[in-house]
Amino acid sequence: MSTSLSIVAIIPARYASTRFPGKPLVHIHGKTMIQCVYDQVKSTPEIAEVVVATDDDRIEAEVLRFGGKVVRTKPEHPSGTDRCFEAYQKLNQSFDFIINVQGDEPFIQPEQIRTLAGILTPDAELATLIKKIEDEETLFNPNTPKVLVNTKGEAIYFSRQTIPYLRQYTDKKDWLQHHTFFKHIGMYAYRPDILAQITGLKPSALELAESLEQLRWLENGYSIRTAVTTIETVGIDTPEDLARATKK
User: Fold this and answer.
1) Half-sphere exposure of residue 132: CA atoms within 13 angstroms, side-chain side
2) What CATH number is attached to the domain comprising 166?
3) Which structural domain range is residue 83 located in?
4) What average pLDDT does the segment 121-133 reach?
């Protein structure tokens, strides 16, 4: 990465959640979840600015309480990508790249953000993180998107299905021994002009089939660079996830 690149990290955070309402404000080891995420991102040297993008008074008040920066966005955004774009516009500052850090990843490591920032160059359009799959449960779990990459490290396709299909090994228990599979980690970097373009695209056929918005970008010809992390992520989607993550 060029050291001259300026990067803003935007953390989309909604109060409403079907499976876990109000999760940005739950406490984890004495801090709210949103502060945990904010502090981890803030401690990453490559990040010039950190901003929470929210549509909720309670989340806004909490971010201001711990001294963070927050931008109010419309409630009706269909995705975190759209929320990031509105927040970026409201900043009235120019950055070379925007990194979208999920607001429900309180254990995100600065090293993961550094890994993603490390593959950014002025000609990059989009970038994201991937991790080698080590266990069968993850490999065959449709809730864990998988990704195929080309020889340049760019994403070819994302799927909830296990890809590629190893035709010569009929016993799927052997698959991890014979191929390197990658799962997708939902942290994105966008060049601002590309972010403006992709938020104007209509949902695509592949996106609707798999329910993965990044397929819209691939289907429209955009390039997504990938960086491999060895660090596991712990997303919090349900109260049970939180209980498991904080269990000592």
Assistant:
1) 6
2) 3.90.550.10
3) 7-246
4) 97
Under the banding of pLDDT at 50, 70 and 90, the label for residue 19 is confident
Q: Does pTM surpass 0.90?
A: yes
- Judge whether residue 2 has pLDDT over 50: no
Q: What is the identity of the amino acid at 234?
A: V
Residue 2 belongs to a domain: no
Number of domains making up the chain: 1
The mean per-residue pLDDT over the stretch 98-123 comes to: 95
Q: Closest by alpha carbon to 17, among 237, 233, 234?
A: 237
CB proximity list for 63: less than 8 A, separation 6 or greater = 34, 35, 38, 52, 54, 69, 70
Which amino acid makes up residue 192? Answer: P
CA distances to 3, 34, 128, 158, 175 from 15, rounded to whole Å, are: 36, 11, 25, 28, 40
Distance of CA 58 to the CA centre of its chain: 23
